[in-house]
Amino acid sequence: MIIFIKMKTDIEIAQEAKLKQIADIAKRAGIRLADVELHGCFKAKISLNALKRAKKKKEGKLILVTTMTPTAQGEGKTTTTIGLAQALNKLGKSAFVCIREPSLGPVMGLKGGAAGGGYAQVLPMDDINLHLTGDMHMITSAHNLLTAMVYNHIYQGNELGIDESRIVWKRVMDMNDRSLRGTFDITASSEVMAILCLSKNITDMKERLGRIVVAYNKNGRPIQAADLKAQGAMALLMWHALKPNLVQTLEGGPAFIHGGPFANIAHGCNSLVATELALQLSDFVVTEAGFGSDLGAEKFFDIKCRIGGLKPSATVLVVTRQAIDRHGYDNVAKHIENIQLFGVPLVIAVNRKENDPDEEIRYIVKQCEKFSVPTVISEVWGRGGVGGRELGNQVIRVSGDRGKFKLLYGLKESLKDKIEKIAVQIYGANGVNWTDKANSDLEIMEGIGMTNVPVCIAKTQYSLTDDPKIYGRPKSFKITVRELKPSAGAGFVVAFTGDIMTMPGLPKHPAAENMDISESGRIKGLF
Question: For 388, which DSSP code?
């Protein structure tokens, strides 16, 4: 029997860790030092030349970590991702972590950072959660440059005939600020972020940036960034951001932290270039996609894997006592069904949190085993890689057969059919309600040729429905699509449902209230 005692905070654990030089981490991972661009001693950018050189090597196995429908406290998806990679390394496999970069909005707000927790963290945790290598600021600058060029073009005579009532490109900032809704989105929801994460190289990124739709003219023709000759300067601001960020786990394993699109608004996956490079360098790549299978996993499979030609070998579904208390076992069953729709082998990880009683954890395992899915207890938060050995062994076992990976829908299906298929098969809805605005937007998408593309549904993460207050596995409901927007550069259409917002607000007591730094530079309150 394992009894958790009161642990140190994440930042205290991180500050006591003895980090290895990032150049040594890179060398052991098989990255040439000529491709390592140091940002201090413990983090680095990796040149895209490394991907070109690594193409000749055998590709590793891609493991996705997702969750059941989460609570506001989070279920430890990122912690499990990091801990599983640490466990695989302890089991004699070479494993790479690939996760998203934190946004300052959640860091300073409610959800917290995105560097894991306990003894399953990526380091240096404080740098990662605050600014890392500046990617968020590069993305923000490129996005806002395009906004400035739109309005400057209008001021200078409006040669393109932009309809000022049909400008669809806002400004962005990397912070939650509800007072700016209507004029600002959060950086993590920007199409520029999605483009960064789906681009394969500089040329591809430049072409995608040029396809961004910023407005429409009086005749309804879309005005794109290329019409404003903005894509070159945007790519110039972004080219360092396209290089993956290399850091390390608490146990000295390699980790790429690159790109940070939200999963309830955007497609919720780290960058393709980081994932592809990691696959060429290791036996296993463990990655996560935001929130539950209805959001992160579906978009990971139908958007990222489709665009990148990736074939995942296994999925880990994280469940917790707190989420089961909120949503029940029927919710777990639905997420299992969702993953099985894609033909990917599955393992359930019962993420044991501090002070979870033994008898309750054992009961959860027994109940989950009734679904005929391998179920193990994960204790990576309290024990690091050692606490994930059983999970690692199960992942190795089930990933021996890659299964029969398949996508949920074909690109030639209509946008309406794709969205309704996701709603019915993934969310469990009876169908979709379409507002007049959404139906009008469908006609616009057809008119501009944005039909044979994936769809990215913006929806609450706290429910299988589009209402965050409806828990469990609801029956007999429909979701409401209120509007559609083209992300022509990213290569998908975004469907907005319910009350989902692209500029969140801070909670009554934001996490920022507890943060401080001493004269010596020691941070406190950062989780």
Answer: G
CATH number of the CATH domain containing 228: 3.30.1510.10
- pLDDT, tens digit, for every residue of 8-62? 888 889 889 999 999 999 999 999 999 999 999 999 999 999 988 876 567 899 9
Using only C-alpha atoms, the chain has a radius of gyration, in whole angstroms, of 22
Whether residues 371 and 392 fall in one domain: yes
For residue 110, pLDDT over 80 is answered with no
| Peptide bond before residue 124 is cis, with ω within 30 degrees of 0 | yes
* Cβ 333 vs Cβ 414: under 8 Å: no
Question: Which of residues 191, 218, 240 is at a domain's end?
Answer: 240
Residue 125 domain boundaries? 26-134+241-398
Q: What angle do CA 333, 62, 83 make, to 5 degrees?
A: 75
Segment 391-402, tens digit of pLDDT: 999 999 999 876
pTM of the model: 0.95
Inside any domain, residue 54: yes
Q: HEC profile for 420-455?
A: HHHHHHHHCCCEEEECHHHHHHHHHHHHCCCCCCCE
Strand partners of residue 62: 285
Which pLDDT does position 17 carry in this prediction? 92
Say what the pLDDT of residue 112 is. 63
Residues 261 and 295 in one domain: yes
Taking 3-state DSSP, the helix, strand and coil percentages for the chain, each rounded to the nearest 5, stand at 40, 20, 40
* Total number of domains constituting the chain: 3
Neighbours of 123 (CB within 10 A): 25
DSSP 173-200: ESS--GGGBTTEEEGGG-HHHHHHHH-S
Answer yes or no: do 441 and 376 share one domain: no
Residue 134 CA from chain centroid, whole number: 18
